[in-house]
Specification:
The chain is α/β, with parallel strands linked by helices. It has two domains: about 10-170, Peroxisomal Thiolase, Chain A, domain 1; about 180-320, Thiolase/Chalcone synthase (Peroxisomal Thiolase, Chain A, domain 1, 3-Layer(aba) Sandwich), CATH 3.40.47. The chain has ten helices and 14 strands. Helix 3 (about 55-70) crosses helix 4 (about 95-100) and helix 7 (about 210-230) packs parallel to helix 8. The protein starts with 7 loop residues before the first strand and ends with a strand. The model has no long low-confidence stretch (mean pLDDT about 95). It binds oxa(dethia)-CoA.
């Protein structure tokens, strides 16, 4: 993806996490697993899970409204919902989300790139702003994995959680100012499509975790290096690396191979687990709340997941306060 002509600037950040936490001990009561195994192998201590009746669209609309509030805006031109777990196969989730948010007439579509969906959405949004098609775009990552996780499968049930995170991108003045999305890069390898899949006709997700793990680390490292090189950064120039929160050990390996000290690697997986398309905006909000991001910081976002898909974005951190719903 080439740099946009009109700068796209991140101006708002919002989240919505369901209030109910399922702890590792809760899972160990019905699965052959333990807090010790889950925490040491993944870094996860708990994940949020929606109650019956709460859908992906509801989470998405709440996170989207929070992002608009964070930006001090009441409307936007386009709503992109990145999700693997829409409430219905047809129609798309995004028009319902836009209506629920009180955005009559806004363009709206879903984007399906599994755990890379947020970075794909950011890339599409920045390109559309860059081309002058839209002036403001909400990119929402929203997931309800509890709908597709087999409660008896310890390989996936311990990992995934529900939630939504969103950013507002707007047409900006400065191409290298605070909040500017400087560059994005995306990729895929469909030969790995069986590694994370809901098989045709089946209800539940199946994942070959070990194989995904092995492929995630080098692919994320290469993608992060490519996006950094495209904007003239050495990997060690990165102030904050925000990887898809799939597994703490994956994030640690990626940071180490990039030569980054552990404190520059952002993680919130302990509290929320792997929330797929929602994971990067949730991690960004958590880091901003904890004061780990300073305006002007050089931030790299890198995702990897089902498809297989991957992608990275390089941006300069804006001056904003996340809003939570
Ligand atoms: O978000 C999209 C992308 N997804 C990912 O990036 C996920 C990447 N993969 C992973 O995070 C890890 O592969 C897992 C967390 C899914 C699994 O961890 P692992 O260290 O790769 O374990 P493994 O699958 O190689 O299994 C090791 C052992 C096996 O037992 P044996 O064969 O050694 O006796 C498993 O049966 O651990 C066993 N095991 C468990 N034991 C207790 C697998 N899951 C569990 C569990 N509790 N929940």
């Amino acid at each position: 993806m080439s740099n946009s002509r009109i700068p796209a600037v991140l101006t708002g950040l919002g989240t919505c996490l369901p209030p109910r936490t399922v702890t590792n001990d809760d899972l160990a009561q019905r699965l052959e697993t333990s807090h010790e195994w889950i925490h040491s192998r993944t870094g996860i201590a708990g994940r949020r899970v929606v109650d019956a009746g709460t859908g992906t669209a509801e989470l998405a609309a709440a996170a989207g409204s929070a992002a608009l509030e964070s930006a001090g805006r009441s409307s936007c031109d386009l709503v992109i919902v990145a999700t693997t777990t829409p409430d219905r196969a047809c129609p798309a989730t995004a028009p319902q989300v836009a209506s629920a948010m009180g955005l009559p007439g806004a363009a709206a579509f879903d984007l399906s790139a599994v755990c890379s969906g947020f970075v794909y959405g950011l890339s599409v949004a920045a390109a559309m702003i860059g081309a002058g098609t839209f002036g403001s775009v909400l990119v929402i990552g929203a997931e309800r994995y509890s709908a597709i996780v087999d409660p008896q499968d310890r390989g996936t049930a311990v990992i995934f959680g529900d939630g939504a995170g969103a950013v507002l991108l707007e047409r900006g003045q400065e191409s290298v100012g605070q909040g500017a999305v400087l560059h994005t890069e995306l990729g895929s390898d469909g030969t790995g499509n069986e590694l994370i899949t809901v098989p045709p006709g089946e209800r539940y997700l199946r994942m070959k975790g070990r194989e995904v793990y092995t492929r995630a680390v080098p692919t994320m490292v290469e993608s992060a290096r490519r996006v950094a090189a495209a904007v003239g950064w050495q990997p060690e120039d990165i102030d904050a690396f925000v990887g898809h929160q799939a597994n703490l050990r994956i994030l640690e390996s990626v940071a180490k191979r990039l030569g980054l000290p552990p404190e520059r690697m952002i993680t919130n997986i302990e509290e929320v687990g792997n929330t797929a398309a929602a994971s990067i905006p949730l991690a960004l909000a958590s880091a901003a709340d904890r004061g780990l991001l300073t305006p002007g910081d050089r931030v790299v976002l890198t995702a990897f997941g089902g498809g297989l898909t991957w992608g990275s974005a390089a941006l300069l951190w804006p001056d904003l306060r996340p809003v939570h719903r």
